[in-house]
Every structure is written in C-alpha cells, then in structure tokens.
Write a structure and sequence with these properties.
By secondary structure, the chain is an alpha+beta fold. It folds into two domains: 2-38, YefM-like fold, CATH 3.40.1620.10; 49-82, no CATH class. Helix content is 47%, strand content 18%. The chain contains four helices and three strands. The chain has helices at residues 6-11, 13-21, 49-60, 71-82; strands at residues 2-5, 26-30, 33-38. It has a three-stranded mixed β-sheet. A hairpin with a 2-residue loop joins strand 2 and strand 3. The two termini are 47 Å apart.
Length: 83
C-alpha cells in the first residue's frame, strides 16, 4: 500500500492509477490524514440477456391487472413517467 500527499498525487496521477490497476492500493493524504483510496475496479459480472428476459417474464406472470393495457396505453404511461 502506497501513501502519497494530494499535491504530489496530482502530478503523478497516471503512475498511481497504474499501481491501482496492478492491484496495489494507493492512499491519498491531505496534511498527513488519509482522505481517499485508489483501488482497482472489479469487473461487473456479465448478465446474460436471456436470463434477464426469463426473470421479467416470470415476474410478469405474478402481476394481476384489473384490465388489459394496450401497447399504446403502455407507451403513453411510460412517457408520462419520464416527465
């Protein structure tokens, strides 16, 4: 783990990011106190589109509507929700 002052970190940011990418934590300090930490970002797991669609369809089967909604009504309601 590396500790570095904020003023020096500004001039060495590229180097510090490379260290973080390599798995080393970098602590940035201000007046000797830690204020930030640079760490490697963990990649998010890839979600399969077919699995998401399957979940949505399963959830949709659990919803009971009082009446059927036309596609036009659904689009209108969706547009209203964006305003």
């Amino acid at each position: 783990m590396t500790s570095i002052g904020i003023y020096e970190a500004k001039s060495r940011l590229s180097e510090l990011v490379e260290q973080a990418e390599a798995g080393r934590e970098v602590i940035i300090t201000r007046r000797g106190r830690p204020v930030a930490k640079l760490v490697r970002v963990k990649p998010e797991p890839k979600i399969e589109r077919s699995a998401v669609i399957k979940e949505i369809r399963a959830f949709a089967k659990t919803i009971k509507l009082k009446r059927r909604i036309s596609l036009r009504e659904l689009r209108r309601m969706t547009a209203e929700g964006r305003d």
